[in-house]
Amino acid sequence: MYDIIRKKFAETVNNNGLEVEEITIKAVPLSPQEAIGNPEDKDYPLVIGKERLMQAEFKGSLGQAFTDMYGDFSGRLSDIVEMNLKNNFRRAIFISSLNAVMRHLGLVDKTIHCRNNEPRECSQELLKYLERNYGHPKIAFIGFQPRMVEALSQNFDLRVTDMDRGNIGKKKFGVMIRSPEKTQENLSWCDIVLATGTTIVNNTFNQFRLSKPVIFYGITISGAARLLGANHFCYCGH
User: Residue-wise over 177-189: b if at least 16 C-beta within 10 A, else e?
Assistant: First the structure.
């Protein structure tokens, strides 16, 4: 899958004449306030400190990606395209840079995380989107996003899995959060899948290439979703 993304990314770079430019991409982790502002709810992974947003800048355009491995990076665009994607840190650099370049080219427009109380607005729009397009499906939700789970749990039959051991085995909004070991069982049970776009960074994306509808949410997967033709929902991203 990364080979496909890399190939399409390289083609995009070449087709737009960017390969000949010695352009430096800088990627840095954002603080929680820089990433999400000051939301009324304080249970987001960004606020708690479980994850950070890596932000890449390319010719004034910004791209972001969630990751649990972060640090500073500076390199040429050609370095990014050819990068060995051996861990979450390198994949976060690659994906945030992909988002920044595709934002610069006008190919995507949701590459910066929503702020303050926009996540709550996004969850309400997701609820409307699902009801309008899918009726009342059984949903396998991948990656605990508190506002989305809060909204959907009141209206749908919902099963949730998450990698965060601090959430596993706990009830959130009436839904038990299960470990990733339950993912395949939930995928067989559900009508549709809602998966965090962070799967493109933590190398779990391939298990969600299914015959049933799969919708990836959030800014992390904006560029990759465009290149792969995947369903993507990110109502309040910037």
Answer: bbeeebbeebbee
Which class for 84: exposed (0-12), middle (13-18), buried (19 or more C-beta within 10 A)? exposed
pLDDT in tens, 129-152: 999 999 999 999 999 999 999 999
Exposed (0-12), middle (13-18) or buried (19+): which is 105, by Cβ within 10 Å?
middle
For residue 89, being part of any structural domain is answered with: yes
Question: Are 59 and 146 in the same domain?
Answer: no
What's CA 138's distance to the chain center, in Å? Answer: 22
| 70 and 20 together in one domain | yes
Q: Per residue in 32-45, pLDDT tens?
A: 677 667 766 666 56
pTM of the full structure: 0.91
Three-state DSSP class for residue 133: helix
Structural domain range at position 94: 2-104
Per the document, the length of the chain is: 238
DSSP string, 19-37: TTS-PEEEEEEEPHHHHH-
What does the pLDDT look like over 4-20, one tens digit per residue? 999 999 999 989 888 76
